[in-house]
User: Fold these one by one.
Assistant:
Number 1:
Amino acid sequence: MPVDVVAPASARKLVLGKLPRSGVKAATRAAVREMGLPDDWSDDEADAFVVANWSLSALGGFAFVVEQAPPAPKKKKRAA
């Protein structure tokens, strides 16, 4: 059976879209909990789910991702 190694940061980025500077594991668990993760799962179990989800998407399956709001449009500066 072939084994693929994935950096957890890559898997987290797939799910979160953008990684916070600190508290990455807690942010990952909170995001995955919004998708239905059981409350009794630890941060490490949430990470394992995220890595498995990354592997599923790499095989062509559907990945669970957190829906993010589009960025707010930038205001144009007025000429004086």
Number 2:
Amino acid sequence: MTMKKYFNFEIYTIDPITKTTGWDIKMVSVKADSIETARKEIKDLPNFDCIILFNFSHEENETARFLFTENYPIFKIIERCD
């Protein structure tokens, strides 16, 4: 399997029921060729509200478009989403 490039962001989500913005904070890695593309692609994530900050880029043996992660105390993939 070929390593894929991901860009990790801290984001706000929208409450799926009430549609309240700024509902929850998530760490999400987006599969993309560049940070500019990743910033566009993350808008397709269900319940995406806005980007708080860019954290880092990394490579993974994954196929999912989005990876929900924990970044502290160690990096860990929690959930995958296409």
